[in-house]
Write a structure and sequence with these properties.
The structure holds 2 protein chains of 2 kinds. Chain A is of the alpha/beta class. Chain A has one domain: Rossmann fold. Chain A is 40% helix and 17% strand. Chain A has 5 helices and 5 strands; from the N terminus they run βαβαβαβαβα. Chain A has a 5-stranded parallel beta sheet, with helices on both faces. In chain A, α1 packs across α5 and α2 packs across α3. The longest helix of chain A is centred in the middle third of the chain and has 14 residues. The radius of gyration of chain A is 13 Å and the shape is globular. Chain B is an alpha/beta fold. In chain B, 43% of the residues lie in helices and 11% in strands. Chain B has 11 helices and 8 strands. In chain B, α2 runs antiparallel to α5. The chains are: A alpha/beta, B alpha/beta. Chains A and B meet through α1, β2 and α2 of A and α2, β3 and β4 of B. Bound molecules: guanosine-5'-triphosphate and magnesium ion (MG). Magnesium ion binds next to α4 of chain B.
Chain lengths: 132, 358
């Protein structure tokens, strides 16, 4: 039995649209991954606890509301607090170019803008997943 | 058993969430060390009450599970949830969306929720769901809820795992009861008509009740026109006179009608009827334990699991062999009419047992 990559797709923040998150969830499923879809308005605490209970390899964060500089680092902080270093975290959504270096310095592995082809994200996960 | 799996099993028993999650993944990946380490759980923890929630797609199973979790938490229980969704037959991937409706419990340390992909299993649960129950039981969860994939009529493997099966239906599926026909009615211990805020819920309740009564009478070897002074007859009378007629979502089906399963209405979205559902579940366990039915059900379940496991292992071993007397060889001989099917099966089995002795 081949190992399935498990991805928690979460939308932190208060905006009420999850179309982007759903598109990525479908693309990852079609690439053979198991996607745990958690829906809108998730707190960083919910996202991290979900990832642990689900034994996720990857957390994919999607955001439109502009609170990424606060919410994304909070996720990686909580993971570090719990001693977790083998979950790949990346983000997507509307995020200004100038914020990306800061987010990467906080352990967000990559940021994908709105126009990113889903295949790029799929390949990124397959290459960078920490647990083989 | 490999040391790392034993250590992981020990952490599961201690209630470590990451260990539990990792262990279930190993089981999903058919890791033989993890299966061997299940041995570690055989006498850990207390027997949990295992409750299956099944029913057609979109009937409200996840929403109801969320409310049941809240109800059991209010009683101070530790609750484990295993939520199964289908894998894509094309990519092998899956979107597991059940826990979306349960996320308010995500950070509650007394609740563990795990989504499982069916991975090609057709019975409504995944192959490791039963083993995952053992892990959660050993980790001290005393209520374990299993949400099956949305089922049609033949996905009934939940009966092999759960002590209590809640069968959820809804009004407005067209030919309401159709969805519950053939096979699936038999597995319900408790029947829930969810979305009772919609028109037609009472009709579905009546139809289910009528169907259950017919089933019960057939099982009792009586015609539906039995004398009113027999049990079956009394149940029939009740259904006609509406004596047991349930319009308020309350629990019934107890007392003088031991064969009849409770049928109740819920509105999972706002929690209406859920307290009664919990009472019905408690009633099911209380009666099952005092009558001994629960114990014999568990025995029967383990028997059937054991049979499945043994035949799977025998088949696996037989399928791996090549050459003269192998599965392929004997099948060819049957096709060429040099051997009959029955004799071929005997030959395969005797070959298997010889192989075991080697
Ligand atoms: N009107 C009404 N809608 C409900 C009720 N319970 C659930 N729903 C809605 O029905 C839809 C499906 O609910 P779920 O709980 O996801 O159903 P499910 O059976 O788990 O679905 P699958 O897992 O996909 O088979 C959601 O939009 C719910 O909000 C109810 O009592 N009344
Ligand atoms: Mg569901």
């Amino acid at each position: 039995m081949d190992r399935k990559i498990r991805v928690v797709v979460a939308k932190p923040g208060l905006d009420g649209h999850d179309r982007g998150a759903k598109v990525i969830a479908r693309a990852l499923r079609d690439a053979g991954m198991e996607v745990i879809y958690t829906g809108l308005r998730q707190t960083p605490e919910q996202i991290v606890d979900t990832a642990l209970q689900e034994d996720a390899d990857v957390i994919a964060l999607s955001i439109l509301s502009g609170a990424h500089n606060h919410l994304f680092p909070r996720v990686t902080e909580l993971l570090a607090e719990k001693g977790v270093d083998d979950i790949l975290v990346f983000g997507g959504g509307v995020i200004p170019e100038e914020d990306i270096p800061f987010l990467k310095s906080k352990g967000i592995a990559e940021i994908f803008g709105p126009g990113t082809p889903t295949q790029v994200t799929v390949d990124f996960i397959k290459t960078n997943v920490k647990r083989k | 058993m490999d040391d790392s799996c034993a250590a992981l099993a020990e952490q599961c028993v201690a209630g470590n969430i990451r260990a539990i999650a990792r262990f279930i993944t190993l089981l999903e990946n058919e890791d033989t060390q993890a299966f061997a380490a299940l041995n570690y759980f055989k006498d850990s923890g207390q027997a949990a009450q295992v409750i299956g929630i099944t029913g057609p797609p979109g009937s409200g199973k996840s929403t109801l599970t969320d409310k049941l979790v809240a109800g059991f938490r209010a009683q101070g229980r530790r609750v484990g949830v295993l939520a199964v969704d289908p894998s894509s037959p094309f990519s092998g991937g899956a979107i597991l969306g059940d826990r979306l409706r349960m996320q308010r419990h995500a950070t509650d340390p007394g609740v563990y929720i795990r989504s499982l992909a069916s991975r090609g299993a057709l019975g409504g649960v995944s192959r490791v769901t039963g083993a995952a129950v053992q892990v959660l039981e050993a980790a001290g969860y005393d209520r374990i809820l299993i949400e099956t994939v949305g089922v049609g009529q033949s996905e009934i493997d939940i009966v092999k795992i759960a002590d209590c099966v809640v069968l959820v239906s809804v009004p407005g599926l067209g030919d309401e009861i159709q969805i519950l026909k053939a096979g699936i009615m038999e597995i319900g211990d408790i029947f829930v008509v969810n979305k009772a805020d919609r028109d037609g819920a009472d009709r579905v309740v009546r139809e289910i009740r009528a169907m259950l009564e017919t089933q019960y009478m057939l099982a009792a070897g009586q015609k539906p026109h039995a004398e009113p002074d027999t049990l079956a007859g009394r149940m029939f009378e009740e259904s006609v006179t509406g004596h047991h007629g349930n319009t308020g979502g309350h629990v019934d089906g107890y007392g003088d009608a031991p064969g009849a399963a409770p049928v109740l209405k819920t509105i999972a979205e706002n929690g209406e009827g859920v307290a009664d559902l919990i009472k019905a579940i408690e009633g099911h366990f209380a009666r099952g334990i005092s009558s001994g039915a629960m114990a014999s059900r568990r025995l029967e379940r383990v028997r059937s699991q054991l049979q499945d496991l043994v035949s799977a292992q025998v088949m696996q071993s037989i399928a791996g062999e090549k050459g003269s007397g192998s599965l392929d060889d004997l099948a060819t001989q049957v096709v060429e009419r040099r051997l009959d099917l029955y004799s071929a099966s005997k030959l395969l089995l005797s070959r298997y047992f010889q192989g075991e002795k080697r």
